[in-house]
Write a structure and sequence with these properties.
Elements (H helix, E strand, L loop, with lengths): L12 H18 L3 H10 L8 H19 L4 H24 L2 H27 L11 H19 L2 H10 L7 H21 L2 H24 L2 H5 L20 H24 L23
Length: 297
C-alpha cells in the first residue's frame, strides 16, 4: 500500500481519468433531486419533503470548496463541489420559497446553524494554528479536509435507514439499484483518486462509502425478487372500480379510506427522503426513484 499511496502526481493521466469519472458520478448524484423540485415548483408546495439533506449537502460542499482552494493540486475536488454546491443552494432556496409555517421556520433555523458552523470552522482553520497536520498539508488544509470528511462520512451512512427498511419489509422497492450502483461507482473513483494523490481527507469518507455501498448491494440482492421489485409504492395504490352497490358506502367510511391513503403518501415521501445520503463527492441523491447523497469526493 505504501508503494501505491501518493505514487502519482496530480497531473498524472490516471489521476485525471478517475477525477473526471468521479466528477461525472458526483454531478449525477447532486442533481438527482431535480425531478423532486420540479414537482415542488409545479405544485407550489414542498408537501412532506425534508430539507435536511440539502442543507447538509451545502455545508459539505462549502468545506470541500474551501479545502480545494487552500490545498495545492486539489482542483478537481474544488470543481466537483463548487458545481454540486450550486445545485444544492438552489434546492434550499426553492424549498424556502415554497414552504410555509413550521417547515419554513425549521429550514431557516437549520440554514442559520449551518452558516454559524461553517464560519467557526473556517475561522479556526485560518486564524488559529493547530498542531494537526496531515502529510503534505498545513494545519489549515488538514482541519478543513478532515471536517469535510467527517460530515461526508455521516452522509454516506444515511442510506442505512433504507437498508433497515428493506430488511424489515423484505422488499427492495425503497432501494433502487441504479442509485445504489451510482453511489458506489462514484465513491470507488474518488477512493482511487485519493490513493494516487495520497489525500487522507478524500480517502476517509469515500472508503466508508465503498463499504456501505457494497453492503447495500448485498442487502439488495439478498432480498431482491420479482415480487418485491414489482411491488407498487403505497402512494400508487388506487381503489378498485366501484359497482353501483359499492357507491352506497357511508360517507364516514369513505373519509377514513382517504385518510389512510394520505398517511401512505406521507410515509412514502419520508422513506424516499431518507435515501438521500452523500459522500465527500456526491452522495446526495434525494428522490428514491431517480438517480442523489450527496457532495461527492
Amino acid at each position: 500500500m505504501n508503494a501505491i499511496w501518493g505514487s502519482r502526481c496530480a497531473t498524472s493521466p490516471f489521476v485525471e481519468i478517475f477525477a473526471w469519472l468521479g466528477f461525472v458520478g458526483a454531478q449525477l448524484l447532486f442533481y438527482s433531486p431535480t425531478t423532486t423540485f420540479r414537482k415542488i415548483i409545479k405544485n407550489q408546495s414542498v408537501a412532506g419533503y425534508d430539507h435536511t439533506p440539502y442543507v447538509v449537502s451545502v455545508a459539505t460542499c462549502t468545506l470541500w470548496v474551501a479545502y480545494g482552494l487552500r490545498t495545492p493540486g486539489r482542483f478537481m475536488p474544488f470543481l466537483t463541489n463548487a458545481v454540486g454546491g450550486f445545485a444544492e443552494i438552489n434546492f434550499v432556496i426553492i424549498y424556502l420559497f415554497y414552504s410555509s409555517g413550521k417547515q419554513r421556520r425549521s429550514c431557516q433555523c437549520d440554514v442559520v446553524v449551518t452558516i454559524v458552523f461553517l464560519t467557526i470552522i473556517i475561522a479556526i482553520a485560518l486564524l488559529i494554528p493547530l498542531p494537526l497536520k496531515l502529510k503534505g498539508e498545513d494545519s489549515t488544509s488538514s482541519l478543513l479536509g478532515l471536517s469535510a470528511a467527517c460530515v461526508n462520512t455521516f452522509m454516506y451512512a444515511a442510506p442505512l435507514n433504507i437498508a433497515r427498511t428493506v430488511i424489515q419489509t423484505k422488499s427492495v422497492q425503497w432501494m433502487p439499484l441504479p442509485l445504489t450502483l451510482g453511489g458506489l461507482i462514484c465513491s470507488l473513483c474518488w477512493t482511487v483518486y485519493a490513493v494516487l494523490v495520497g489525500d487522507v481527507s478524500v480517502f476517509i469518507p469515500n472508503t466508508a462509502g465503498d463499504f456501505l455501498g457494497f453492503t447495500q448491494l448485498i442487502i439488495y440482492f439478498t432480498y431482491h425478487s420479482p415480487q418485491s421489485s414489482s411491488y407498487k409504492l403505497p402512494s400508487s395504490n388506487l381503489p378498485e372500480p366501484q359497482s353501483n352497490e359499492d357507491r352506497t358506502t357511508p360517507l364516514l367510511q369513505q373519509e377514513e379510506g382517504d385518510d389512510h391513503h394520505e398517511e401512505d403518501d406521507n410515509t412514502s415521501r419520508r422513506i424516499q427522503q431518507q435515501r438521500r445520503g452523500g459522500g465527500a463527492n456526491g452522495h446526495s441523491s434525494d428522490d428514491a426513484t431517480t438517480i442523489n447523497n450527496t457532495d461527492i469526493l
